[in-house]
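Q: I'm building a small set of examples for a reading group on sequence design. Run inverse folding on the following structure and report the sequence directly after it, with nothing in between.
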């Protein structure tokens, strides 16, 4: 009985090795179970990652904080967002455009509104409604686009640095 099981395991490993080119000898189950598990892993969870979103927030937020430390030059805090997204694209092993765009947009929108919050409050009291919502939306769109472009260039540089030269 154990001889038949061992033979089936060897057959399954041989077919799995021939199909994928990867040694899957340590994984239990039949070939069809492995294929369905691989298909499920490939189809779900690879488009969005909460962990990657946290790293993207840390990179873009850190870029904004580092940019705000430059004195006497305007807009350096906002320019720090694409720098952080670029560095995240350079360091990340996978493409994370959704997370980086979301983080860049939210950091830019929230940072811009908070930086002019006192002015918005004073104008709101005085009757000149400037529209915090519109300001957030414009800053968020600009932050989203800038972080996506910067993440792309970071990924492109990473691909160039890790490419085989031969």
């Amino acid at each position: 009985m154990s001889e038949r099981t061992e033979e089936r395991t060897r057959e399954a490993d041989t077919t799995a090795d021939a199909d994928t080119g990867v040694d899957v000898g340590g994984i239990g189950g039949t070939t069809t179970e492995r294929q369905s598990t691989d298909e499920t892993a490939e189809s779900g969870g690879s488009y969005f990652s909460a962990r990657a979103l946290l790293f993207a927030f840390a990179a873009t937020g850190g870029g904004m904080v580092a940019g705000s430390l430059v004195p006497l030059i305007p807009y350096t805090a906002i320019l720090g967002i694409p720098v952080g997204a670029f560095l995240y694209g350079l360091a990340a092993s996978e493409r994370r455009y959704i997370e980086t765009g979301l983080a860049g947009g939210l950091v830019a929108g929230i940072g811009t509104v908070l930086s002019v919050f006192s002015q918005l409050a004073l104008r709101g009291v005085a009757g000149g409604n400037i529209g915090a919502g519109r300001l957030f939306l414009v800053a968020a769109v600009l932050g989203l686009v800038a972080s996506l472009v910067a993440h792309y260039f970071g990924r492109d540089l990473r691909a160039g640095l890790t490419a085989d030269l031969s």
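Confidence is low (pLDDT under 50) at residues 16-44.
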